[in-house]
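Observation: inputs received (chain + 1,3-dihydroxyacetonephosphate).
Thought: call the complex predictor directly.
Action: predict_structure
Action Input:
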Amino acid sequence: MVKKKLLIIANWKMYVATSLEARRALQSLRKQSLVLRGAEMVIAPSFALLSAVVDATKGSKIGVAAQSVSPCADGAHTGDVSALMLKAVGAKSVIIGHSERRASGETDAMIREEITQALSAGLRVVLCVGEKERDHDHGSHFAFIASQLRSALADLAKSDAHHLVIAYEPVWAIGKSANAAMAPAALRETSIFIKKILVEHFGREAGISVPILYGGSVDETNAGALVSGGEVDGLLVGRASVKASSLAALIQACKAAAQK
Ligand code: 13P
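Observation:
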């Protein structure tokens, strides 16, 4: 496996409500510069906190991502936030196709449009895929993941691979406790499967250059084993990413596991 820099994305979902809370978390995270060294850290706050998080991370290596983007470029779309708006506020990446967005009605066609909008605004796309349940008898979840991926990648050229990250988040593993996360061996198998589809679409070199992350009930107790045994390049972390000390411990665990 080509070793890439460890990438940790903190999906703050709707957990962090005020700019004061966000600034406090980021202040303590910035103090962990030794822990952050050698890893790429990205914070994904809600739209409302993007600007505060961009300000609070200025001068640091911590990047900022949005949690979603409109499939439309501009116009009469009340409540939507366009890719250009995200770019203008200072976000560098955007999470697209999160299962919590798909559950509230986002379709594969919308996700394709969102990817197009994000890439044309110069944002890096963190595309989420993942099955609702595992089919232990027939393995039909592989076909499901393949179809989500192929649909999202359909319009992408080889040159887009460098602006893409895949976050594999099995829906059944999200929002639970650490022992409900996927087992590293099963993750490894799925990660290799995803890589195969990326190589099929982009060709070998570009395909294997796309980082693959895992998300779903990750915390400092299972992060190391998931990254080292799961053949992934990093993690997309929900609940455990809100407290700076847990996030720092989680990064430390990944780095320690990589050195073994
Ligand atoms: P949890 O880490 O809270 O399970 O959330 C995972 C997730 O959905 C990240 O996008």
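Thought: report the result.
Final Answer: The chain has a mean pLDDT of 96. The pocket of 1,3-dihydroxyacetonephosphate is lined by residues 11, 98, 169, 174-175, 215-218, 236-240 (CB under 6 Å).
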